[in-house]
Amino acid sequence: MCVVGYLMVYQVGKDYNFDGNYNFAEISTIGSKKAVLILNNGNAMNLEENLDSVIAEVDGTLIQNDSSNALTYRKSNSLPNKLIYNQINIPRGGEYSLTLADGTKVWLNSESSLKYPVQFIGVIRKVELTGEAYFEVAHNKLKPFIIESHDTEVKVLGTKFNVSAYNDEEDITTTLVEGSVQVSSLGNSELLEPGYQAVVKRGSNQFQVNKVNAVLYTSWRNGVFQFKDQSLEEICHQLSRWYNVEFFFTENQYRNLRFAGAAKKDRSLDFTLEMIEKMADVKFAIKGDKIIVGKPN
């Protein structure tokens, strides 16, 4: 969950110095590949500490965690009588990828989780997502693939797309790269074409479909932050999750500043914040273990 303070105006005095020479790397960490796998029996395994290992589930399914930080489920020769679930949790400052038993590939962003069957049985393939993930779904016209995120459902046969459904954001967005997907929520349903995005207001019947540049919403899995006409608040959300640091605003006006640009995720936080400072009348300062957003009086 995102820290509540991040969404609030900073109220602890005004003794911060926006003219200081700060090293933001001192209070932030560049994200890396890490995750916790929850097995069917409830046991938890830190995947980054168990590379090049093979895990056996209760039904005999073999799960390989290779040296490239990717999890692969091997298709079983005999299907179980009931669904057996695993869950993968990605912490702040983490990311991970996995291949499900049907061949579907999933890339999970920071502060995300996916619950899924070890082996798919029955007439549908259903998973549950919180956070953000990019999917390349293995085609199977007889078994649609369904992603459930809060009160939104994304249904596909085989395609490439991104879903963002964080608990601390009111919008659930589905961005289609290739193929087609059906997005449904609270009685509304839309069939997307490549290059379009469905935006659902969680808990309401507000439903919009917009034409977008899909690269802007999927570049994170290739190690790049890309921004185009994006608010500073939205950008700080992404930076907060990846660098595991909290941002606070001195004034609400700074939240709505708009930016365009790109930065590699393996660069230090200093690089991205310096880029933002050069493009707009805003400064960043450090107070304790938090980053303050504002400008000198």
End-to-end Cα distance, whole Å, is 33 Å
Note the run of SSEs as H and E: EEEEEEEEEEEEEEEEEEEHEHEEHEE
Oligomer: single chain
Estimated radius of gyration: 20 Å
Structural class: mainly beta
Q: Which percent range fits the helix content?
A: under 10%
Coarse shape: globular
CATH architecture assignment name of the largest domain = Sandwich
- Give average pLDDT, whole number: 91
Low-confidence stretches: 1-13
Q: Number of helical runs?
A: 3
CATH topology of the largest domain: Jelly Rolls
CATH class of the largest domain: Mainly Beta
Q: Tally the structural domains.
A: 2
Q: In this structure, how is the largest beta sheet organized?
A: 19 strands, mixed
In percent, how much strand structure appears in the residues? 35-45%
**Number of β-strand runs:** 24
List keywords for this structure.
43% strand; 297 residues; disordered N terminus; globular; 19-stranded mixed β-sheet; 2 domains; three-stranded mixed β-sheet; Phage tail protein beta-alpha-beta fold; mainly beta; Jelly Rolls
Protein described:
This protein has 297 residues and is mostly beta strands. It folds into two domains: 97 residues, Phage tail protein beta-alpha-beta fold, CATH 3.55.50; 187 residues, Jelly Rolls (Sandwich), CATH 2.60.120. The chain is 9% helix and 43% strand. The protein has three helices and 24 strands. The strands form three sheets. The protein has a 19-stranded mixed beta sheet that branches. A three-stranded mixed beta sheet has the order 21-24-23, covered by helices on one side. The chain is globular. The protein starts with 31 loop residues before the first strand and ends with a strand. The N terminus is likely disordered. It holds the Pfam family FecR_C. One of its GO terms (molecular function) is sigma factor antagonist activity.
